[in-house]
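Late entry, written up from scratch paper. The run itself happened at the end of the previous shift, but nothing got recorded in the book at the time, so transcribing now.
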Amino acid sequence: MKKVNSVHTINTIALMLVSLIIMIPSYITIYSVNFKNNNRSLLDNLYVLGKRQKNSISEALEDIKYEIKLYSSMEEVVSLDKTRISDRLSFIRAYKDRYTSVLVLDNNKKIIYGFSENLEALLEKSYIKEAFAGQLTTSEAINIGDSYYIDIACPIKNKSNKQIGIISFRLLLSKLNDMMKNMRVDEGTECYVVDKEGKFITESKFIPDAVGNKAVDLKNIKLSIDYSNSNTYKNYMGKDVYGCYFLLDIGQWTLLVEKTADLSEESGRVTKIAGQISALLQIIAIALLQTFFKKKFNISFNTNEVSDILNQYRNGKLEINEFVQEIDKLNSNNSKREAEE
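Output as recorded:
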């Protein structure tokens, strides 16, 4: 009887060991390969999303610049007549609510239309100087209260193509938020724009009133992504995220696209597939061992019991001590059955 019990013990232990030996490496290998592919796919999707967002912003700004260039060539504006300019620009501002103010200056730096609290300081701004030098330019982000604005300045030229002044439109950047919201993203993905110091220019998905008040560690984020975009880093919420960034053609701004690492939908799918494959390998191993022990020792065992124990351990329903207890229990049951026979 002892010999039989010993055979049953060897049977159960060998079965468990071989099945686990097959399960663990196969599971790790399959999961590793699929995780790498999933990670690459996630990063590619972030890049595509960011590229589309950047192109949308760039195209919108270019459209606005083109629009302002057209306004600068209107007969009423070129006339530099205060009354005619006022009538035309008042109509434009009523029709285009994204412009909060307009300023027209002649070549003598005299205000023809609009208002400036500190004209002397304004004339020292680089974008104003560049506009007087004949370029269509944009300012840095201007923070007033909880809102951000930019000024877009354009030369005014007469029919002889001679510059006679400049026109500057102030653009409210909340319109940029609307543009960002129109881009569909999933729960764990966020797109936002920051200035050169890392301050939010567009709204945060998770923190109210972040614009102008909240900043990210832009330097370290860029360093982390440049070093390896397949690694995660801590975002402004302290969560691990994958990310990519894009430099915008305005105001030294940066577009950031981030996805929280723990909300990857593909990770769950990959784990499930890997688990299914490893379970299949276990079934094959059990079937082979059953055939081997039946022919070699004329011993058979209940494969359903073994499979159930393995699946419970793999799924985390059994701790290691409970796993050992289940093995002992299975050995004991095998011994009792053999004794009855």
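The radius of gyration is 35 Å.
(Scratch paper discarded after transcription.)
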